[in-house]
Design brief:
Blueprint lengths: L5 H27 L10 H34 L7 H20 L7 H52 L1
Helix pairs in contact: 2-3, 2-4, 3-4
């Protein structure tokens, strides 16, 4: 342990008091200083902001049934069924969701509609390809079974002719 003289202790104490006062002054200035009119919001600006928020919420309320029904249509979609109108209904619904974004593309909140449209479009494409591949796989499995059966029959026929 270092032994300090009374003079050195007094200087160290005054140094720490000075740092404390300086830090407290900086924090107080940062927290309580009035930065002028930049932080003031006029009544008209606030009313505009509230009306934009209300418009966004109303758009969400209007689009929610479309988004939900589009999801249900995509999940029920069967590419094995030859119904072009189902595909066009899903594509029209996706276009409707995307149109909600295009009405107010400058507002970043509306980008959620574009992202939902892209997500559902990818889901629809994936479901269509997956179901289509599954039906192709079933058809190929059936063809494989037919080949195996005909190969067995051919072997049996060749085996009975050799005897």
């Amino acid at each position: 342990m270092i032994k300090l003289s009374i003079r050195e202790r007094r200087e160290q104490f005054l140094f720490f008091i000075g740092i404390f006062v300086f830090t407290t002054g900086l924090l107080s200035y940062g927290l309580f200083h009035d930065y002028g009119d930049g932080r003031m919001v006029s009544k008209q600006d606030l009313a505009d902001q509230l009306s934009r928020n209300a418009d966004f919420e109303e758009t969400i309320r209007d689009q929610r049934p479309t988004i939900d029904s589009t999801y249900k249509q995509i999940m029920r979609f069967d590419p094995g069924v030859q119904a072009v109108f189902l595909e066009s209904d899903i594509k029209n619904s996706l276009g409707s969701i995307k149109a909600a974004y295009q009405r107010r593309a400058s507002d970043q909140r509306y980008k959620t509609f574009l992202q939902a449209s892209q997500l559902y479009n990818d889901l629809f494409y994936d479901r269509r390809e997956l179901k289509g591949n599954r039906t192709d796989l079933d058809r190929l499995n059936k063809s494989l079974e037919d080949c195996k059966l005909s190969t067995r029959q051919l072997r049996q026929t060749l085996g009975s002719q050799n005897r």
